[in-house]
Design brief:
about 180 residues, alpha+beta, two-stranded antiparallel ribbon, 4 strands, rod-shaped, disordered C terminus
Length: about 180
Amino acid sequence: MAEIGKELLNAPFPQLVRTLGVGIAEAQYALDRVSIKIAQLMAGFKVNEDGTLERDETALIVLREGDEGVSLLALGFTPTFYQFVETYIELKLAISMKTETETSISTKVAGVAWSPFGVVAASVNASYSQKYQYEANGSSEMRTKLVTVPAPAMFESRLKELMNESQIAQIQPTLEEE
């Protein structure tokens, strides 16, 4: 039975949990990056070939003829953010080990003592057999749940600040002309 315990300790469960955790963290980071990129697109920007942002007038919505385009963010749309909320790991492992040992010994001893040392003749017939049987079965299942979450509060408050600054900047030239 001690051997089965050793086999269970050899199962790479800690490594599996570590790999799953790192995988979820990397996936979460990738999801956040996509949401940020969508926010940039919704704000009316696109990423150039050199990786910098530039204004994309084709991404703006024109509500009335002659008006300037408005971004989706300015109209109140926000990108969807996702978060991993639950992750389950289920491992099933069955290990069985069987050892059989068979030993048989038969001997014949014959001796004649003709000298002080004696003469001895012996015949030994030994048989030794050991059989090992090992069987291991395993299965695993991993599930994770991904849900939408509201945009981060800091993102929304910063967006409102930028919108107010933008609206003030648009109104300012009009007030100066009057």
